[in-house]
UniProtKB/TrEMBL annotation, chains A, B:
GO MF terms, alphabetically ordered: DNA binding
Keywords: DNA-binding, Transcription, Transcription regulation
Species the sequence originates in: Leucobacter iarius
Name of protein: LacI family DNA-binding transcriptional regulator
Location of the HTH lacI-type domain: 6-56
Biased composition annotated in UniProt, kind: Polar residues: 351-362
Length: 368, 368
DNA sequence: TTGAAAGCGCTAACAA
DNA sequence: TTGTTAGCGCTTTCAA
């Protein structure tokens, strides 16, 4: 491995000068600089980032802690983050906490040990201890997608309540009146907020938000399937379901088929997330799309400012991004309706400030 | 930040002794060791991995280069790899090459600069230069999922030909005779091998493998959709399609719906990969499942042995893992058939050695 | 069994 | 404008 002494010798300068041109942190005579540059690429020299980091206390590496990167939602999210980090010149260390407090803590330590400049975390388990160690190490971190009670981490989340409200309002516009809500684990702030949006839309329309039409269950296909069957059993008259995630909605689709109900006709569905899979189902899911690219750039930007200045105004470090209702088939709009935007009037009022409505067949920035 | 000198002072020993107990690389008196251990966790001391790596030339970090981690297949794969790496005590740096040679090279350098112990790559663009730099840096690397012409990297791939053969044979068993093949970009070894399996099964059955029934197109929903329509136009009599990936099969499903053909009835489908999305479609995809966990443990294991001993026998560094045909609905087995294993006779002959047949509704190790 | 000291490859004062 | 030198926090001979 060629080191900067080799470069220095070839260029006929001292090792320090090599550093100067590398980081141009110091004035260097044009002629000298040229010789050094020439030597550098003649030898194919690349500075050792470990040594550099040890000296500068900067690794240009971020830690990304997710519950499970194979989940379509987190996969989409992590891809966007990796992209934003790459743009900013940062590499990312990825860890899946798999909803295990111990494993999450293991990754927090692995990241800290490796001296990442910052950490982005979607906490799954109990993040209290991880958060404590993060603070002790004074490493900037931002909480993504959800908030955890008692932990005042800077955060980037979407307008869950607004998105859920828009989804529910849209179902109401379709004439649905017995609208159920299927959402994630009760411990998750995102799940709770979506319920609030659902309730709000129903209340505004003078419709009841009955508890028997509400189900908290994990964000998974299986859980969505089981919960849908149970909702249907508790109230067979349900004519629409707002599902808190695309994966759950896939389970809902399956459950409806099981009992012989037609999605989008007998029971309308609107889900949340707008992951690629929402476009793979039959019929396609009408869904509240999260702005992945914006989330990613925002969270990376926030982390970088925090790295620059760790002691900045905390109040400005909580961002809520808007979502977009993407009308496809399961809400009842269907292929025919899609060609006639007028049949579904635009939403007005509260949710309009945070939720855009879109008429589209696929997510704008598809990954494939 | 507390360093080992603080620990040493508190324990009343020299800094060196702290190292000794940390790595137990040296005999230490029991009493001394105890004092050091006590000091370590009283102070919450954690060794700086950068400094340690600089001294030992080991980072316990792997670089994982993928085309695009949001793709369901790579998402599934990366999750399995992250898991295997975690088991082995390694962290992983993740990079998406997005089929760009420049970006792939950027990541190879980012990984090399950070002195990863090894690299796992699923090359998308032209990997020649990356491979050159990898060799120059003498950093072990293994090629995953596909091989690249002219590059003799250690590799872990699945039995693409065998899986494709099993898929096609299964379609033949269902009485299909005009079986088309839809597969990935012509430049990909995996795509080519799947075509070979398709041809082989047809040949064995005395069926023609007509070129008009073969299409090379990217592994994406859109491409699968367009290619299916074209195949159908070239030969409207097609009664089955072997799709080289689940994502393409989703496009096929959509195309069939477009032209009013019923999947699993008018046209049977078997796809490849066995990603979670294959279970989200309607009807569910019969698919050739890749052994994600085995692939991951194998590739990590191979990389670790290479790290231990870079100069080992190259011939043993190419592994081909078996796939499993997972019968669901699109092949024609359908829910009814699933309860009667006898209706679909087990395969015999060549493919039996590398392809297991399974009767199951979902992938065994689901991530949700 | 313990300690002193020389690296690992770089940055960054400080001198020249 | 360039060179010298002292770290960065650890491992690891080599002596004691």
């Amino acid at each position: 491995m060629v080191g900067r002494v080799d470069v220095a010798r070839l260029a006929g300068v001292s090792p320090a000068v090599v550093s100067y041109v590398l980081n141009d942190s110091h004035p260097v005579a044009p002629a000298t600089r040229e010789r050094v540059v020439a030597a550098i690429d003649e030898l194919g020299y690349r500075p050792n980032a470990l040594a550099r980091s040890l000296a500068t206390a900067r690794t240009h590496t971020l830690g990304l802690l997710l519950p499970e990167s194979a989940n379509p939602y987190f996969a989409r999210l992590s891809s966007a983050i990796e992209d934003a980090a790459f743009e900013a010149g940062f590499a990312v260390l990825l860890g899946n906490g798999v909803d295990s407090t111990a494993r999450e803590l293991g990754y927090v330590r692995a990241f800290l040990d490796r001296r990442v400049d910052g950490i982005i975390a979607v906490p799954g388990g109990d993040f209290a201890e991880g958060w404590r160690e993060l603070q002790a190490a004074k490493v900037p971190a931002v909480s993504l997608d959800r908030l955890q009670a008692g932990i005042d981490l800077p955060s980037v989340v979407v307008d869950n309540a607004g998105g859920a409200r828009a989804a529910t309002e849209h179902l109401i516009e379709h004439g649905r009146t017995r609208i159920a809500c299927l959402t994630g684990g009760e411990g998750l702030s995102s799940a709770q907020e979506r319920v609030i949006g659902w309730r709000g839309a129903l209340a505004d329309a003078g419709l009841p938000a009955e508890d028997r039409r509400l189900a908290f269950t994990p964000f998974s296909v299986e859980a969505g399937h089981a919960a849908t069957l149970e909702l249907l059993e508790r109230d067979p008259a349900i004519d629409a379901i707002f599902a808190g995630s695309d994966t759950q909605a896939v389970g809902t689709l399956r459950a409806l088929a099981d009992v012989g109900l037609r999605a989008g006709e007998d029971v309308a569905i609107v889900s949340f997330d707008g992951t690629p899979i929402s476009d793979y189902t039959t019929p396609r899911l009408t869904t509240v799309v999260q702005p992945y690219a914006e989330i990613a750039t925002e969270v990376v930007r926030m982390l970088l400012t925090l790295i620059e200045d760790p002691a900045q105004d905390r109040s400005r470090l909580h961002r809520v991004l808007p979502t977009t209702l993407l009308r496809r088939d399961t809400c009842g709009c269907g292929p025919a309706a899609r060609s006639d935007a007028e049949r579904v009037p635009a939403l007005a009022g509260a949710s309009a400030t945070t939720t855009r409505i879109e008429q589209n067949q696929t997510e704008p920035k598809e990954f494939l």
